[in-house]
């Protein structure tokens, strides 16, 4: 994201909990150390900024309170400072899960976060991007699935007939930079994808893997009971504050939802942008999932 924004020629300022992680990516004076509940840091971040892009979010947790602290209150706090600073526009990178808030505490928090940001901004132009599954360099959520499929098995958590959209991380970053570079900040809602209108079935996704590895990928439907118990245990441990889990009953409902195909909006909402990277090219550009030549049985 930082590289794509910097390529526009704009000066970029970023908030970082660990500023040393951005060393060499931005000048030190453009890295603001702090968190989303630090009003002093948020004031320093937004002061004098023309456009604000908010992409921080909590993805691990078990309760609404845990997710809301970042996805609702944190996002709204940034939006409030953006309004006070006199910014021209605000881009919120949300999640496609926000379309189905009844599924999980995470999904509900992303939906509520969109509403809270809009209220905090008032008349300030708001643009919301809802990404589906994002993959590419730096991704850690999709990588385990890609590795498993490269070994010949596609674990299907819900219906084999489910369909879903995908987007390569570079296309998402370019969309954000195109929004930032627009003459007037666009308003609207875009469920962003790679341009494949009906998304992918598990069979089509597996075929994309096969085209690169040359190895058959078999769909394996995971019986509900296999994950229900560990998800319930994780959920309880998360509520007790012992862990910050990823696999919870809510996450299982997300994984088992049959329709994660993007529909709202279209590329024309962001001047100068359209998706460029399809599944085959995106998989080839994603490191770390293919087995070395000769590895495995």
Question: Explain this structure to me?
Answer:
With 297 residues, this protein is an alpha/beta fold. It has a single domain (2-284), classed as Rossmann fold. It has helices at 2-6, 39-46, 64-85, 105-121, 143-150, 169-181, 202-213, 224-239, 249-255, 279-284, and strands spanning 14-16, 31-33, 51-54, 89-93, 126-130, 133-135, 153-156, 163-164, 166-168, 188-191, 200-201, 218-221, 259-260. The longest helix is centred in the N-terminal third of the chain and has 22 residues, at 64-85. The two termini are 38 Å apart. Mean pLDDT is 94; it is low at 293-297.
The CATH homologous superfamily is named NAD(P)-binding Rossmann-like Domain
N-to-C order of helices and strands: HEEHEHEHEEHEEEHEEHEHHEH
> pLDDT below 50 for ≥5 consecutive residues: which ranges?
293-297
Major sheet: 4 strands, parallel
Report the average pLDDT across residues: 94
What name does the CATH topology carry? Rossmann fold
Q: Based on CA inertia axes, which overall geometry fits?
A: globular
Give the helix/strand layout.
Elements lengths: L1 H5 L7 E3 L14 E3 L5 H8 L4 E4 L9 H22 L3 E5 L11 H17 L4 E5 L2 E3 L7 H8 L2 E4 L6 E2 L1 E3 H13 L6 E4 L8 E2 H12 L4 E4 L2 H16 L9 H7 L3 E2 L18 H6 L13
Parallel strand pairs: 1-2, 3-4, 4-5, 5-10, 6-9, 7-12, 8-13
Antiparallel strand pairs: 8-11
Helix pairs in contact: 2-3, 3-4
